[in-house]
Amino acid sequence: MRQSSSFTAGLLSLASLASLAQAELGKIQWKGLCDPTNATGPMICGTLDVPLDYTDSTSNKTLTLDIGKWPATKKATAEPVFVNFGGPGVNSFEGLGSYGKEFQTGVGNTIPFSCYSNDSSRELASLQAPKDGTASNTARGEIWAQSTNYAQACYAQNGENGSLIGTTFAARDTLQVLDALRGKDAKLNYWGISYGTTVGAVMAAMFPERMGYLALDELIYYVQTRNATVLGSSEVYSTVKSYGLSASLTSSSNEVESGIRCSDKAASASMSDVLPYSNVRASLSRIASDGANTDMRCAQWNKKMYAKERYTGDFDVKTPHPVLVLSNRYDPSTPLAAAKNLTATFEGSVLLEQNGYGHTTLSVPSLCTAKVVRAYFSNGTLPAEGTICEIDVPLFTNLTYADVWPKSFQAGL
Q1: Which positions make up the signal peptide (predicted)?
Q2: pLDDT tens readout for residues 365-384
Q3: Dihedral sign for Cα atoms in the order 395, 356, 199, 180
Q4: Are 86 and 5 in contact (CB under 8 A)?
Q5: What residue ranges do the domains of the chain occupy?
Q6: What CATH number belongs to 19-113+166-229+311-409?
C-alpha cells in the first residue's frame, strides 16, 4: 500500500471524479494463509492491483496492494470492518496479526519509501543533529541544516515517486479494496486509529455517500492546527510522573512517516517561517519541542514530492450513519481537544471518552469501550452524549485483553 496501514484502496466511479484516472474494478487474488510477525493466529493473504497515479488519466501503471484478512471466529453476520492502524508508517500486517482476535479483517502494504541506501547511512545521519530543538542555543539551526540534507536524501532516493504516497491516494485505495470485496455500491465500515483517523476523515469528506459505520480513534493532524498534537502532552507527562515510574514518550519518526506528512503539507520557505510554530510548540509542552524536526524537514521538502492530490476542503460532513469518535483522556500525541473539534464538525457524531493513558484507546483494555465499539459496528448504536468509559487495568502492568475480558465476551468477537 502507499502507506503502511490496513485496508487502503481507491474509488474512481463517481461522476465528480471524471478527470481522474479511470480503472476497471479489480479482483482480489487470494493466495492462502500467511503468518505476519507477532500474529496471534493465521491470516488469509492476497493482492489487488490499483492505479499508481489517480491523477493521470493516460497512465496504465498499477500498484499491487497486499491484502490481509482475519477470518471471523464464528459465522459472519455483518459486513467486514476495514482497520487502519495509522502511523503514518505502521506495518498493518503486524498490527492486524497482533490484534486479529479483536479486529476481524484488515489490509496493508507500502510503496517503498526510504531516504537512505543502507542502515549505516541512516544511523550516521541520526547522529548529526540534536533531537530536541531546545537542547542548546544552536540546536534549531543544527536541526535545520540536518533537515536540508535529509530532504535532499529523500528526493535522491525516491524522486517523483514521493508524490504518490499522500493521504488522498490512500483514501482512494481504501475504496478500491471495498469495491473489489463488496462491489461499487457497498458502504465502507472503517475503524481508523491515529493517522488512520486522517484517512477516515478525508474519505468521509470526499465520499460521504460511501460511508457506512465510521469509528475514528484519536484524531490527528489533517483536521488540526499545526501544533494541536502537543496540546495534551505535558498533562500526560505530569500525570504519569505522579505514579513514581518512568515512561518513554517517543515519536515514531521514520522515513515513511516523514514522506506522507511532508507530501501532504504546504511547505514553508525558510527557517524564519518555521520558528514561530516551533516556539509555540515549545511553550505548549515541555516534551514536544522535538517536533521541530518534522516541521523543518517538511519546510525543505522537494516540490516534486508534494502529494499529487491534497484534500483542501472542510469537514462539515453529514454521513449516512453518524460517526463514532473515540479518545483517551490522556494522550501525548492526539489530545482530547482534537476529538472534540472533529465531533463538532461531523453532523450527529458522538465522542466516547476513555479515562485512560497512552496513544489510542487500544493502549489499555476497557471492556466498556469494547462494548461500545461492538454495538456501533453491529447495528450503528451510539453511546449517550458525555459517556466516559473506565479502563480495566492499572498503568504499567502486563495484563492484556485476554486477562480482563470475560470469556463470554471474547467468544463473541
Answers
A1: 1-23
A2: 899 999 999 999 999 999 99
A3: positive
A4: yes
A5: 19-113+166-229+311-409
A6: 3.40.50.1820
